[in-house]
Design brief:
heterodimer, A: alpha+beta, Alpha-Beta Plaits, 2 domains, four-stranded antiparallel β-sheet, B: 3 helices, 4% strand
């Protein structure tokens, strides 16, 4: 029997609600000092069958916990062999867990994604430079010079494309600035995915945030917008201690956005 | 118990497509086993060489942009970069590797390719 972890909470007693987790097993709290690790038992045969569909089950447990506690979400598929190993992990990270629980108390994560017409914007930039080709023509006409000219044109195009992206992201981010405590902005994860943003928002400001999203969505243009959440603060857990390898713990950082987890 | 997350968008299909694209450029594990160990190692080494090549190229373009190179220097850099790129193409062909396979997630700096 393994122990499957969902998250760390700011509560060190038994959970009142009956929450079912992976493999239909009840979730319970393992206290350590003034915090708790929310887990369920996981038979090895279930562990062998777990695939990405179980991400939803993991997320449902976290969602239930968020209703009553501050939650540090654990990476999907974090499993320990024994309670002793688990406690040794919590002992190692205790100060980090405590600091994060205090910092993230009463806050949730909201996600905003924005698609822009990246291909046509790049095309416009290329045409603009093509019209001004003499400006970026490098003197000389050897093969090496032609090569540098081509590379330089690509470089200028990329630079202009990034500048355009930065400027648009700044405009979008302005809509949310008044309502957020912290943010993580990822630019151009693909040519068209202009922005993949995570915002840390106080629970009582969620509605203001959503209203700001509606304003943004109504701005005329051909951008596409997506709002998701509230999530537990996946992107805002900061660990001062280096990731440590425990017997059965994944060797990477124990916190991760579960949707990025490959099984 | 059901998920109560809000996902608001007018274009779910576009977002799924773009997220899949973003996921697919995440680095895969080096799959080294006795049968393909050469390719696995070549992939690792060539990815690192490609990273260095791209950094050199970017630095060179910055200097061209800043007009801090003489014509002779631009010529020499162009020849070096061109030869390096050709050699990379040759090696990728030898090991049957495509450009998109030589990718690296550079954390906050984004992806190599």
């Amino acid at each position: 029997m393994k122990i499957y972890i969902y998250g760390i909470i700011d509560f060190n007693d038994n959970l009142n609600n009956s929450i079912k987790g992976l493999g239909d097993r009840y979730v319970y709290n393992i206290p350590y000092q003034d915090i708790g690790v929310v887990v369920s038992n996981l038979p090895e045969q279930v562990l062998g069958k777990i695939d990405s569909d179980y991400v939803i089950e993991h997320e449902k447990v976290l969602e239930s916990l968020m209703e009553g506690f501050s939650v540090l979400p654990m990476r999907f598929l974090t499993v320990f062999d024994t309670k002793e190993n688990l406690i040794s992990m919590v002992r190692y990270y205790y100060n980090d867990f405590k600091n994060n629980l205090d910092r993230l108390y009463g806050k949730v994560e909201l996600g905003v994604k924005v698609i822009w017409p990246g291909e046509s914007i790049r095309e416009n930039i290329i045409n603009l430079y093509a019209g001004n080709s003499q400006k970026i023509r490098i003197s000389g006409n050897s093969q090496a010079m032609d090569y540098v000219t081509d590379k330089f044109q690509e470089y200028k195009t990329d630079k202009a494309f990034e500048e355009e992206a930065n400027s648009r992201i700044k405009d979008i981010d302005r809509f949310f600035n008044n309502f957020v405590v912290e943010k993580r902005l990822e630019k151009l994860k693909s040519q068209n995915l202009l922005l993949n943003a995570s915002y840390l928002v106080e629970k009582e400001k969620q509605e203001d945030f959503k209203e700001a999203f509606e304003h943004l969505r109504n701005v005329p243009g051909n951008f596409k917008y997506l709002l998701s959440g509230p999530w537990p603060p996946y992107n805002f857990v900061l660990l001062s201690k280096k990731s440590h390898t425990f017997n059965n713990l994944d060797k990477t950082d124990i916190f991760d956005r579960i949707l990025n987890t490959k099984t | 118990m059901s998920l109560n997350k809000i996902v608001e968008t007018d274009s779910p299909a576009n977002f799924i497509e773009e997220m899949e694209k973003a996921q697919s450029i995440l680095p895969e594990k080096i799959d080294a086993n006795p049968k393909n160990v050469e390719k696995g190692l070549a992939k690792l080494v060539l990815t690192l060489v490609e990273l260095i090549r791209k950094l050199l190229e970017k630095q060179a373009m910055r200097r061209v942009d800043a007009n801090s190179l003489s014509d002779e220097e631009v010529e020499r850099i162009g020849e070096t970069l061109m030869k390096l790129e050709n050699k990379m193409k040759e090696l990728k062909g030898v090991f049957g590797l495509k450009d998109e396979e030589l990718n690296l997630n550079l954390g906050p700096l984004g992806d190599l390719m």
